[in-house]
Design goal:
heterodimer, A: AhpD-like, about 65% helix, B: mainly alpha, AhpD-like, 9 helices
C-alpha cells in the first residue's frame, strides 16, 4: 500500500497545514509522528500475523460506532468498504452497534470501600444473527471491545479465555486489545482538537 | 497446543485507590525475558522495561508497542512549554481514577505529587474521586479529563473556555487532551490484560 498523503489524525481532526492547531501539534513532533506510526502499526502493519486487515477494520468500525463519533466511524467504514466484504457484513456491524450502544465508564470495583462506586450496566454479547455473519472469532472480539469501551473495570481472566476459545492466540489478543485501546485514544484526541479549533 | 490464560498466584488485590507502589500480574503469558528478539527489544524502547511483565506481554506486537511508547514519552515528558509536568500527570491520574484503573492511578498519583508538590490534593483525588474540590485550575483540568473520558465523549467548548479562564493556552489545553486521551488507551490495557497486586511483605 502506498504511503498516505495525509496524517490520519489531521484528517480526523480537520487540521489544515498552516493552521493554529497544525502549529500546536508541531510543538510535540514525536507524539505527532508516533501517533501516525501507531495507526500504521495496527492497521497497515508489515505483517498482519493472526489478525487480518478486514478483521482490524471491522473492529474499528464497531469501536468508533460505539463512541458515536461520526467522523472516525466514517473513516473506518470507508476502509472496510474498500476491502470489499460481503454487503451483509457492514449491515451486521451497524446492527451490533445499535444493540450495543451505551454510556460509560461503568462497572464494579474489588469488594470493599469502593463498592459504593459500583455502577451497574449491561454486558453485551453479539446476537445470533450477527454472529452467523461475522463468525465466532470476530463476534468474540466485538464482545471484548464492548467490555473495553464501556466497562473496562469489569475485565477478568475469563474474558480472555473466551477470546482464546474463539480461536485467537495470546499474541492476537494483545493486538486486538491494542487496536481497541488505541482507538479510544485516537477518537478522543481528534474530538478534543476539533472542539479546541472552534472554541 | 492452544494458548491458556494465567491464573494469577494467590495475592492481595488493592481495594482502594492508593499512591503506594503496586505490582501487576498478567493474565496472559508475557514473552520470556531471555529470548527477546532485537525487534521486541526495540518495541520496549528502554531496555529496563524487559523486567516488566506488562511490557513483555505488549512486546508480542512490538511495532505497536514501540510507537505507543514513543507517543507516551512526548506527551508526558516533552519539556517545551504547554502544561507543567505535574499537571500532565494529574490528567493521567484523574483519567485513571474516573475509568477505575487502580494501578495506573497509583503510578501517576505519585508522579503528580512529585512534580506538583501537592501530595495532599492528589490524595484527595484518589480518596474522593473526580468531584474533589482542588481549586479552580485543577478542577477545570479534571473536569476536562472526565468529559473526554466519557463514552460517548462529552467534551465541549465550555471545557475549553473554562481551561482558558484558568490560564491555559492552546498548547496546554492540547496537552490536557492528549494526556487524558492517552490514559484512555493505557487504562484499557492495564485493566484488561492483568490485575494489580499489593507487594508481598518484605
Amino acid at each position: 500500500m502506498p504511503p498516505a498523503l495525509t496524517d490520519v489524525m489531521d484528517a480526523l481532526a480537520g487540521i489544515k497545514p498552516g493552521s493554529a492547531l497544525d502549529a500546536v501539534r508541531n510543538r510535540r513532533p514525536q507524539a505527532r509522528e508516533q501517533t501516525e506510526a501507531s495507526f500504521r502499526a495496527l492497521f497497515e502493519p508489515e505483517s498482519f500475523a493472526g489478525v487480518s486487515a478486514t478483521e482490524r477494520d471491522a473492529l474499528a468500525v464497531f469501536v468508533t460506532g460505539l463512541h458515536g463519533d461520526a467522523v472516525s466511524a466514517a473513516f473506518y467504514a470507508d476502509r472496510l468498504a474498500a476491502a470489499g466484504p460481503s454487503p451483509e457484513v457492514p449491515a451486521a456491524i451497524d446492527a451490533a452497534i445499535a444493540a450495543a450502544t451505551g454510556q460509560g465508564p461503568y462497572g464494579r470495583y474489588p469488594a470493599g470501600p469502593l463498592s459504593r462506586e459500583d455502577t451497574p450496566g449491561p454486558s453485551y454479547h453479539v446476537g445470533p444473527e450477527a454472529r452467523r455473519i461475522l463468525g465466532a472469532r470476530l463476534a468474540a472480539a466485538f464482545d471484548h471491545a464492548h467490555l473495553l469501551v464501556f466497562h473496562p473495570r469489569d475485565a477478568a481472566p475469563a474474558r480472555l479465555q473466551a477470546l482464546l476459545d474463539a480461536g485467537w492466540s495470546t499474541t492476537d489478543i494483545v493486538t486486538l486489545s491494542q487496536i481497541i485501546a488505541f482507538l479510544s485514544f485516537q477518537i478522543r484526541v481528534a474530538a478534543g482538537l476539533r472542539v479546541l479549533a472552534t472554541a | 497446543m492452544p494458548d491458556k490464560i494465567i491464573e494469577p498466584p494467590l495475592h492481595t488485590a488493592p481495594a482502594v485507590f492508593t499512591p503506594a507502589l503496586l505490582d501487576w500480574r498478567p493474565w496472559l503469558k508475557p514473552l520470556a525475558e531471555e529470548s527477546l528478539t532485537e525487534r521486541q527489544m526495540a518495541g520496549l524502547v528502554d531496555a529496563v522495561r524487559a523486567k516488566s511483565p506488562y511490557f513483555r506481554l505488549l512486546a508480542r506486537d512490538p511495532d505497536a508497542l514501540r510507537a505507543r511508547t514513543l507517543t507516551d514519552k512526548d506527551i508526558f515528558y516533552n519539556p517545551e512549554a504547554g502544561l507543567p509536568r505535574g499537571e500532565r500527570e494529574l490528567a493521567a491520574a484523574a483519567t485513571s481514577r474516573f475509568n477505575g484503573c487502580i494501578y495506573c492511578a497509583s503510578v501517576h498519583a505519585r508522579h503528580s505529587a512529585t512534580y506538583s508538590k501537592r501530595a495532599d490534593d492528589v490524595q484527595r483525588l484518589l480518596d474522593e474521586g473526580v468531584a474533589a474540590d482542588l481549586g479552580e485550575r485543577w478542577n477545570a483540568i479534571i473536569a476536562a479529563c472526565v468529559a473526554l473520558s466519557a463514552t460517548p465523549i462529552d467534551f465541549a467548548s465550555e471545557h475549553v473556555e473554562r481551561l482558558r479562564r484558568a490560564g491555559l493556552d492552546d498548547l496546554a489545553i492540547a496537552d490536557v487532551i492528549h494526556a487524558a486521551a492517552f490514559f484512555n488507551w493505557a487504562n484499557r490495557l492495564m485493566l484488561s490484560l492483568g490485575e494489580p497486586a499489593l507487594p508481598a511483605e518484605a
